[in-house]
Amino acid sequence: MARQNVTMNHPVEDAVAFSRAVVQGPWCFVSGITGVDPETGEIPDSAADQARNCFTSIEAVLEKAGFTLADVVRAVYYLTADSHAPEVIPILKEKFDAIRPAATMVVSGLPKPGLKVEIEVTALKSS
Known about the structure:
Layout: E1 3-6, H1 11-16, E2 21-24, E3 27-34, H2 47-65, E4 72-79, H3 85-96, E5 102-107, E6 117-124
Parallel strand pairs: 4-5
Antiparallel strand pairs: 1-2, 2-3, 3-6, 4-6
Helix pairs in contact: 2-3
């Protein structure tokens, strides 16, 4: 099966040489997506708002690739501080309560000041 690179035509994709997602067979690997507002490019103060923005962008990438959030089987959540978890967890529950992907939460730095959340997912198209 042919590999399909999915782009959202954002300048950072070319600058850093990556795809927003790669589809290979029934799999879709979505790159880490930060909480930048996809409409304004601004970074909200709230970790919860950043998580919501992550999902807005993730759902757009999945749709462009021919997948939905219901296809997600794995998720990795990156937070810049463990104190952001109480804000982010309700958003995760809202989006994934019925889906229940395998998941990992990591506390680490992110490359731009103000970013608090980054989420990456892997989706599998069921036959």
